[in-house]
Amino acid sequence: MTVTASKIFTPKRALLALFVVAGALPSARAQEQVRVTTGETSGQEIQQYCTNIIDQARDQRYLMQKQDLEKLQQDIDARVATLEARKAEYEDWLKRRNDFLQQAEANLVNVYKTMKPDAAAPQLQELNPGIAAAIIMKLPARQSGLILSEMDAKKAATVASIMASATDKNTSRDPS
Fold it and tell me: Which residue pairs, CB below 8 angstroms and at least 24 apart, start in 97-101?
């Protein structure tokens, strides 16, 4: 039996061969997909992908940085508000303290004004020399002299030295 070419290539067989070839094409696409997803890509494809998404990535990075900066700014603003509240509280406390000290100092000076020099001298000589000098400086000059004359000579000299340096413009500190 001899087979002729006309028997092999009948229209039905040609159509069947076309379907077989067409059916094989999706499988070739699937192999291409497998090649792409398994990492077998060329450097040019990677470069093209990176070039395509670089602007989006940069925008996203800037957006994240902006959000981080806004959070930091809110934190700083909250801390500044806390510090300002504490500063106001401290300034109020300091003002009340200074008012109290001025009132107490005025009362203390009035107490020593009414005392006799021989009674005030032993008490002042037991105080810190700086405090004693401050009190004596606020008393009238005649009474200050009498109190200093009643004090121990060394203590009186120390107090007088402090009083002298407090009035000396070269050694006194500028209060501001």
Answer: none
